[in-house]
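Not sure how to ask, but would you mind making up any protein sequence you like and the tokens describing how it folds?
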Amino acid sequence: EELGGKVKRITIRDQSSRWGSCTSAGALSFSWRLILAPPYVLDYLAAHEVAHLVEMNHSPRFWKVVAKICPATERAKRWLDTHGNDLHRYGIEE
């Protein structure tokens, strides 16, 4: 609410191609695989989805909101760039 949006629901899903999502109605969902990531990555992804409550895009304003909520944004993005593909594949049988 502090940002001007309200979270209606949070769900954890078996998403293998995205870390999270936010609907215009305020429903947030996250991949269960995030529990395997460092806490600062969880903070970043929560901030990312919450920022979509006020900006449903990835504009410069959106990224300013994310950075305000989560100072470790760049560190978390680097971690995901390095480890994200392996984490997405976790639990998928080939």
User: Anything to note?
Assistant: Residues 52 and 85 are 23 Å apart (CA to CA). The chain has three helices and three strands. Residues 9-89 form a domain with the Zincin-like fold (CATH 3.30.2010.10).
